[in-house]
Amino acid sequence: MKKRIILLALAFVLVATLFTGCGGGGGNDRTIVIAGKTSSEPQIMGEVFAQLIEHKTDLTVEHTMDLASRIAFEATVQGETHIYPGYTGSLLINYLEQEIDPGTTAEEIIRRAEAGILEQFDLVLLPHVGFQNNFGIAISGEFARANGIVTLSDLAPFTPELVFGGEHEFFDRPDGFYGMAELYGFNFAGTQMMAVGLKYQSFDQGVMDVFVVYTTDSHILGRDLVILEDDRSFFPIYYFHPVVRRDTLEQFPEIREALSVLSGVLTEEDIILYNRMVDEGELNVSAAAALLIEDFGLLN
Fold first, then answer.
1. In 10 A of CB 105, how many CB atoms?
2. Rounded to an integer, what distance in angstroms lies between the CA atom of residue 78 and that of residue 58?
3. What average pLDDT does range 46-59 have in this prediction?
4. Which of 50, 70, 84, 213 is positioned for an S-S bond with 76, CB 3.0–4.6 A?
5. What is the CA radius of gyration of the chain?
């Protein structure tokens, strides 16, 4: 608890510093500010939110970029921003500090996230946009085929000969490495912790044999990887949702209507393609968002 209080206090200071002098991020009281994160996916979707609201309402929208997830969330809680791109599992675990038992249904996770963030943070969870971005455990396709490995349970007997790799955060979270290893009986020969941007390069170079991915990573494309089935349902679901301040929705109910066209629209395969466009420099975030809106006819 003490650690959480310190982290929240630091987050509040950083939020205040980032937004000092910008009057809640907008130049007038009809400006909506969307909290932007550091990776392509929430940046693209945040820009989709922004463009839909600007096209469908008379509100002005600003989209911040490159905020750490906790800073972006705290900015929305404090009212410096108004809309946060959120994932259900993360909302429950990181902010509501609730445990999610293996096998908990998607409907129950969404229900708990919706009720919890409204009660604790005065935030509204709007319907998810369709895709999930879950944790996945990946191995080479060649190794999987040679050894008949399809599920995480299948992997367990091989772990004493394998090195596991992932970003530092994955080793710190309750839905991360140690809980997974305990449930499945993994006993890896070693572990490698690294910055998230180095994982695929490190795997390609043979630094590790097994590693954690996000299931909508664009870097999965073009590689002979197998993402193993989580056959004991350890990982919770991470549906992507717009999260909006309650008072913002009460003042501007047209935001809910503008974003309703996203409900259930996108699949994991869809968002991977737009992530790749940005990750490979084919399009910038704004152009990728505009293309997504056009491709799915969201302005019709």
1. 11
2. 24
3. 97
4. 84
5. 20
